[in-house]
Amino acid sequence: MNKAELINAIAAEAGLSKVDARKALDAVVKSVSNALISGDKVGLIGFGTFSVVERVARPGINPSTKQAITIPAKKVAKFKASAELTAAIN
To answer: Helix 18-37 to helix 3-14 angle, to the nearest 10 degrees?
Structure first.
């Protein structure tokens, strides 16, 4: 499902226009992004939790030259599905 399909699904489920559904989706994405940027977790009961984790620097190999390199540390976004969502999928 891409963003346009998600907007259509939100509009149909909530009885909103597509314009309002797009505004709602954009607001949710922006709010979650801002929370993660500031280091907060975002937990949606029954859906899951978004958080930021830091990956440590680690050794790697450049596939084109086969030389050893160091992959730098970085922060990445993580999503952990809730038990309800996991059960619904399975």
So the answer is: 120
Residue 50 and residue 10 share a domain: no
Q: Pick from 72, 29, 77: which is nearest to 52 by CA?
A: 77
The pLDDT tens digits along the chain (90 residues) read 999 999 999 999 999 999 999 999 999 999 999 999 999 999 999 999 999 999 999 999 999 999 999 999 999 999 999 999 999 999
Q: Which domain holds residue 2?
A: 1-40
Give the global pTM: 0.80
In a shared domain, residues 49 and 22: no
Positive or negative, the CA dihedral 42, 89, 14, 12 is positive
